[in-house]
Amino acid sequence: MAMKVCIATPLYPPDLGGPATYARLLEELLPAEGIEVALISFSGVRTYPKIVRHIIYLMRVYKAAEGADLVLALDPVSTGLPALIAARMRRARFVVKVVGDYAWEQGRQRFGIRTSLDDFLYERAVHPMLVLLRTTQSHVARMADAVIVPSQYLKGIVRTWKVPEERIAIIYNAVELGELGVLPEETAVLPRPRIITAGRLVPWKGIGSVIDAVVDLRASFPHVSLVIVGSGPDEEALMRYAAVRLADNYTFTGALTHANTLATIADGDVFVLNSTYEGLSHLLIEALSLGRPVVASRVGGNAELIEDNVNGLLVDPKDPDALVAAVTRLLSDNGLRAGLARESIRSTERFSTALLIRNTKALFEALI
Q1: Which residues pair with 149 in a beta bridge?
Q2: Is the pLDDT of residue 168 over 80?
Q3: Distance CA 289, CA 38 (A)
Q4: Quick check: pTM over 0.85?
Q5: CATH code, 185-347
Q6: Domain ranges for the chain
Q7: N or C: which end of the chain has fewer CB within 10 A?
Q8: Predicted pLDDT of residue 75
Q9: Closest to 56 in 3D by CA, of 69, 66, 67, 41
Q10: Does CATH number 3.40.250.10 belong to domain 3-174+352-367?
Q11: 117 Cβ neighbours under 8 A, 6+ residues apart
């Protein structure tokens, strides 16, 4: 008899983001492994009021999980709690995937948190809403039969939630590039060298520091330009900041399709990821897979992807001079860029779809 898995995902294409890509990948490929998939996206209930949307979502997951052997939630809060309840009601196994700390992310965006995730884990004087979110995500993770994380760094984060180590499985995400899309016209007209940065425009992505770095780079490379791919709550503030600091030779593309994002990264001379936090960045893996020279901050899962001076350059996210120096090295040294590009492509072989599916199936079979 085929195994049945119900997947509860916060996002699904055309939504952008890692969970959307991951959910579609599992939905398309698990059936070939003899696993029936029923998928319910939280996107379908976002128009309802808060609390109401979670109740409706719980009912949808419960219905979809009829006959399921296992329920997989792709985040520990919005889908995780309803999916946990549905799994218990259906007497099915429950697995949750954790790709970040939702309480900290909300704290940075809405509640004035300025500390890093590593420091936030031990802060106790926080807003009551953050206490609730912390309690929810850690409870869901502790109640799960298994927790999937995409990096050693995130395994360490989940361990602080008092989840037993033996219940945490590291399964690296898969990156399938596919065909590249179209380079946006406003990007194509910018002069070279072109610096590309991409991601959700939130405080911990360090976009303002990238803008500052480009200002400093113009002393040595007068025509250097900057392309910022993505959207988010900080977009308007960053656009105002860039207008003052850069004046010209930059563009905000807004949210692009995945294919067009890849085309933009592939066209760049250097890809910069200057976050103060990353679990395991899809965009960084994609930039490496495309053979782009990469400068990334030495935080979170980035050091699991980048070996400094081998397949990319790592810098301290709190050292703006180091970022400028690293980009300067890449723009000044064709041999260095070529060598890093060769190694970057080779280093992404472990992020294959076949390996993701094989490891995921093995985990499910071990639980059933």
Answers
A1: 170
A2: yes
A3: 31
A4: no
A5: 3.40.50.2000
A6: 3-174+352-367, 185-347
A7: N
A8: 94
A9: 41
A10: no
A11: 101, 104, 157, 277, 300
